[in-house]
Write a structure and sequence with these properties.
Blueprint (H helix, E strand, L loop, with lengths): L6 E2 L4 E3 L4 E3 L7 E3 L14 E5 L3 H8 L4 E4 L5 E3 L2 E7 L7 E7 L2 E5 L21 E6 L11 H17 L3 E5 L5 H8 L7 E3 L1 H10 L9 E2 L6 H4 L3 E4 L15 E6 L6 H6 L4 E3 L7 H11 L3 E7 L1 H10 L3 E4 L11 H5 L5
Parallel strand pairs: 3-4, 4-5, 5-6, 10-11, 11-18, 12-15, 12-16, 13-14, 13-15, 16-17, 18-19
Antiparallel strand pairs: 1-2, 2-3, 7-8, 8-9, 9-10
């Protein structure tokens, strides 16, 4: 039986021909990293290869690591196997990893989305025989509205809260979601304050992205200064002692899970904005079709439901277990140094 070009084992997605792993979850000698979120870029590998715009992100998070940066579409050979990185549109520096050997092409998406958010380099379909896809939101119920409408709703919410003398506290992951929110907030409404974890990551990304001015919340800032303005904070700040400085405040979360009202209630959030850095149902299907692939491997998310649907559409589809969490976890928020 022919050995697959990429195989899933206890450490991650392994290319035996090149002796290299893609987004491994246990320490390995050589890792190609799709993007900077903690479930995909973990500490402990001897050598990291990633897109050059992701290098400062993972060095900020992981410390003094051996890391090589590559450009989009730049081919590089490892033991006779050809690799290249292509835009995934998920967050800044997020890549799909193309692997080619003896005429066979596989693409590992990492995490991805098809909507151009004005922050990440937009997703580009890559032709392949086998496509490894996340399916975080692999249900027909997930259907995103254009982000322009969502940001209009967010800015209107902020303005209304300001009229009522309340501070707007908006939760989003410190890497990716926070910068996307920041990019589209309207600074004419008021000042934008940030939690320390978000400010730390935003400082890393400012050389790559034009964003409005922000003010880090420190112990010296008075409650009266914040009142009526907006505060960006990671989800882990909700319910913490840190948030007491914002009283009186109204909370909101920007997430694909806000599609379901129950998710908002469970998280004790006042308002939910449906905004995801992952594909919705149609985005997943459109992306898969554009690759021209025959085989699909479904990882984290609604894997069983989504793979079954793909098989009904004629694809050779199956699932594989990984330790990726998509938008179901808060790893990168929890792992940040969240000093106020």
């Amino acid at each position: 039986m022919k050995t697959p070009l990429l195989a899933f084992n206890e450490k991650g997605i392994y290319c035996a021909e090149a002796d290299v792993y893609l987004d491994p979850w246990k320490p390995v000698d050589k890792a190609i990293i799709s993007h900077g979120h903690a479930d995909h870029s973990r500490w402990g590998h001897k050598k990291y290869i990633t897109h050059h715009s992701n290098v400062p992100i993972i060095k900020h998070r992981l410390g003094d690591i051996s890391c090589i940066g590559k450009d989009w579409n730049e081919s590089f050979m490892i033991n006779g196997v050809k690799f290249s990185l292509h835009p995934a549109g998920h967050i800044i520096g997020s890549s799909q990893i193309r692997v080619e050997h003896k005429g066979e092409v596989w693409v590992f998406t990492g995490d991805y989305k098809t909507e151009d958010d004005g922050v990440a380099v937009p997703y580009e379909p890559v032709k392949c025989h086998t496509f490894i896809t996340e399916c975080t939101f692999g249900l027909p119920a997930f259907k995103w509205v254009p982000q322009q409408q969502v940001f209009e709703d967010i800015n209107n919410w902020w303005a209304q809260n300001q009229k009522e003398g309340k501070t707007s506290v908006l939760f989003g992951y410190s890497l990716g979601k926070a910068q996307r929110l920041l990019k589209h907030l309207d600074p004419s409404i008021g000042k934008i304050y940030t939690h320390g974890a978000i400010e730390n990551m935003t400082e890393v990304l400012r050389p790559q992205l034009e964003m409005p001015e922000t003010t880090r919340i420190t112990r010296d800032i008075k409650k009266e200064e914040i009142k009526g303005n907006i505060v960006l904070a990671p989800p882990s700040a909700h319910g913490s002692t840190w948030i007491r400085k914002m009283v009186p405040f109204v909370t909101a979360s920007a997430s694909g899970w806000m599609t379901f009202r129950g998710a908002r209630r469970r998280r004790a959030i006042d308002k939910g904005f449906v905004l995801s850095d992952h594909c919705d149902w149609q985005g997943l299907l459109t992306s898969i079709k554009a690759t021209g692939c025959e085989k699909v491997i479904c990882t984290h998310g609604y894997t069983d439901i989504f793979s079954r649907y793909l098989r009904e559409q004629g694809y050779d589809a199956r699932t594989e277990e990984t330790q990726y969490e998509g938008e179901t976890g808060q790893l990168e928020a929890d792992n940040e140094k969240e000093s106020a």
